[in-house]
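A common beginner's mistake is to predict each chain separately and then try to dock the pieces by hand. The better habit, illustrated here, is to supply every component at once so that their relative placement is modeled jointly.
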Amino acid sequence: MNTLESALLAAHASRDTAALVTLYAQASEQAETADMAGFYLTHAYVFALELNHPQASELRQRLIDAGREEPLPPARAPSR
Amino acid sequence: MTNSPTDISLVRRPIEQAHGLPNAHYIDPAVFDEERQAVLFDNWAGLGVTADIPDIGDAVPVTFLGMPLLMVRDKLGEVRVFQNTCRHRGMILVEEPRKIEGAIRCPYHSWCYGTDGRLVSTPHVGGPGQNTHAGIDRALLGLIEIRSHIWMDVIFINVSGTAPAFEAANADLLARWAEFDKPLYHGGADSRFQLEVNCNWKLAVENYCESYHLPWVHPGLNSYSRLEDHYHIEAKELYSGQGTLVYRQLKGEDGNVFPDFEGLSDKWDTAAEYITVYPNVLLGVHRDHTFAIVLVPQGPERTVEHIHLYYAQPDTEADLRARNTAQWKEVFAEDVFVVEGMQKGRHGVQFDGGRFSPAMDGPTHLFHDWVAAQLERHRGLPLAAE
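With all components supplied together, the output reads:
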């Protein structure tokens, strides 16, 4: 197990969502194939989305540019 | 009437002749389920209060009549109620009250929803690293939102989505209490409590609606609030309750009192009113405070009463608030043996629903009449009052 994998497992174990964003983004950059990069980038984005992380929009755009995601839908009005 | 499990034909007769709802409406699980739909889901039922979710991102899961719901304060500050169920595989989304920082992420496959219910991410739905698929239209797969309305800080919901708009359904009551349509400030942790009672939720309503029991069950009120100082509030097929003409403000040792709501008419100098917003919300208004009791049924014979007290200003004296809470807690606790006793009484197999005092039980009979009307509608029976 390499250092990045260990760090990811530790971040999952401690529920450190901010670290998961950073570490999955790193994993994406180190990936050997486009599909692996997309897989890790997806994880980075999902945790960024959950956390309202400042990089969420950028990560989403990278996925859209790679043909792996779509733009956000319009906001919904409350049901009254 | 092969589809009618109970005979409610006597309930909607004039009060002099009427009987109350039959025993089954208090003890039979099948009738409880019928009323769940006909009475509670098809109308505007109370679920909670907005004070439960004061800040943006606050999310509180609630099980209401077996249905998993999620109360959320969205990014724009709007209160929403969602079915707490992921649109993917039906996983419960939020198990404990918590703050939603960004999105609601399903803990199973991480489908993500905005606090407004939009489905915003479906990771790997088209295969690893591919987050879209032609067969998954996110626009159609947002969280199921339950219709909601806020009044007197209470979050009312219409699960079926078929009720008239809240303002239309309750227009008469909103007009009656228009003077209290202003900011209400929850007293905080010292101004909320719960009572768990072993009775059907309707018995709490029935007891709340009438003043007939006051001198017997709340003898402490006799010193200043006599039975003849009370009046019935009777809006047939809408709401009912009772009022008093001799409300006296709670006073501290220095004679200090809670601040009044601004702009109240003279009537409220000494009047107070206690009304049930059918089906399950009990409200009380006074010149200096209001309260809301949301009755959450737990089954045919068990109910949790969620009680909240509100004031006209955000900063009121803690000691006085504590005394006010204690005073109301004592009154409501005095009612517990009554509602639990009526529950036990309904296991008497020859009890016939009971009779009403034509002079004193009008508000309670109106509630029975309304419940019976909901059941007639649900059962597809001709409405007896029409």
